[in-house]
Task: inverse folding
């Protein structure tokens, strides 16, 4: 999810499409939150890992 967010951020910046930029930011933030929660040992949605 983090990689997809980065790809959409770059594509949105290069193509000057604000919707890609916005979706990229959202995916990046959600991916980082899930990764941090997974590394601390907290199970989110019944899963310990998101990879």
Result:
């Amino acid at each position: 999810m983090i990689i997809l967010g980065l790809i959409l951020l770059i594509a949105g910046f290069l193509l000057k499409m604000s919707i890609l930029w916005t979706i990229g930011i959202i995916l990046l933030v959600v991916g980082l939150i899930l990764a941090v929660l997974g590394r601390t040992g907290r199970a989110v949605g019944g899963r310990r890992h998101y990879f």
Observations:
- The chain has a mean pLDDT of 82.
- Residues 18-39 form the longest helix (22 residues).
- Helices lie at 2-15, 18-39.
